[in-house]
Each structure stands twice: as structure tokens, then as C-alpha cells.
Amino acid sequence: MINFDNIFDKLVSETHTIHSIVSPLIANDLANVLLSLNQAPFLAEYIREVYEVTENSDALLVNLGTLNESKILGIKEALISAKKNNVPIILDPVGASATKIRLDSSLYYLKHYPINVIKGNYSEIYSIYSKKLTTKGVDSHYINKEDLLKISQDLSTMYNTMVVATGKEDIISYKDQSLVLKNGNQCLQKITGTGCMLGAIIAACTSFEMSMEAIALAISIMSIAAERADKTKGMASFKISLLDEISLINKEKLKERIMYERL
Prior knowledge:
With 263 residues, this protein is of the alpha/beta class. The chain is built from eleven helices and nine strands. It is globular.
């Protein structure tokens, strides 16, 4: 069994500030998810304050969901602050497989800043590894799981970062080690921003311990909450039920349902 008891105990008993630069499309839900897990969200991207906000935070989540010139400048300033002040950085390269600016930005951040975790769907991780665009949108492109395992491990070694590739099964890799998590529900694909929410949960968990176990805990919180959520009435009800289940999650529920493979 993956041992994340200590991380979960800290998550529910200690409050960390998670600075999240995200799309306004998901900002409210993301903030509420962090609050429901006893964490303090701070959502700032204005260039004149992001350095200070990051400096006083316990983790920085950079999400490329909605880009503009001002946001790109704010991200750079936040990354400079995180690097100088040893704040863990989680990069969610939304759409890196779809447009050149997103892919080039992701590669630049990986090269110049100490990214601790990069989390993307299969196609985003493949694009960053291959440095090629693969899709016309932000959805995952089918890639063989065995190939993704090797790509994730190679990418992790290349940039000395933990790699999370999300899809039908979620892969966590650090150099030559990998965990494959097998929980989840297809309804997550029909709700905007669930991947962004997962990025925030990963930022929260890794702010307490930078480890594969912490990331496995974060993924399991989202995936098992999705399994437990009400799927009988429609997507609006499912979303509300998902948020309820995240707020009600505990170690017993996680241990009862978690399915994984260590490679």
C-alpha cells in the first residue's frame, strides 16, 4: 500500500498557502477545492504583486489555461520569486500539445526554473518530450501506456522533475521509478477544469512533502471522489457531488478503493 498517511494528516491539520496562476474559467472551483482540503488559495497574476505573493506562499501552481501578455509576464515574475525563495513549483502545461506559444513557454520554464512537478495529459506530456505539437485542442491524444511510461521517465531524468501524465490511467514518474494509478471516472472528462483542480491538489500535497506518494495522494483524492460522486442526475449534479466528495474524503475511503501498480 502506498504510504501517504503522514501527508494526509498534515493536509487536514495544517494550512499552507497555495499561489495559483490559473484561468479565470476555473479559478472559483479551484479555490473552493483547496479550501475544502484545509488549504489557503491565493490567486494573483498582476506583475506588481506576484513576486511578493509567491515569496510568502508554500507552493506555486502555474497553469497555462488562458494566456495573454500580462499573464505571461506575471508567470515569469512568480517563477523568479519561487526560484529565489525555494518555493515548490508545479507546472500544468494546458494546451502545450495544441499551440506553439504554450509548448515553447513550457519548455522555457523547464529549462530555466526548478520545476518540481509537471502535470499534463498524455498528449501534453508527449508534446513536451518530443517538442512537437500533436493535437488541435487540449484533449488527450491516444498514446500507448508503455510508451508513455518510458517518455515520462526520460522526461523526468531530462529535467530532474516529477512527471504526472493523466489519462485513462494516471502515471507518476521520477527518473526510473513509476506509479500507475487506476481509479477515476469518465465523467471527469465532461466537467471543465477537473484537471486544473487536480493540479491545485497536487500543489497542496507536495507543499508538505515532495514525493511520488504525495502526488499519488492528490490523484487519489480526485479520482476516488469522482468514483463516489453521484452520476445519476446529470453533469451539473455530478460536479456538485464531486466537490462534496472531495471535501468529505478521508484516509479510510482512500485506502478502501485505491488501485495502483508500482513499476
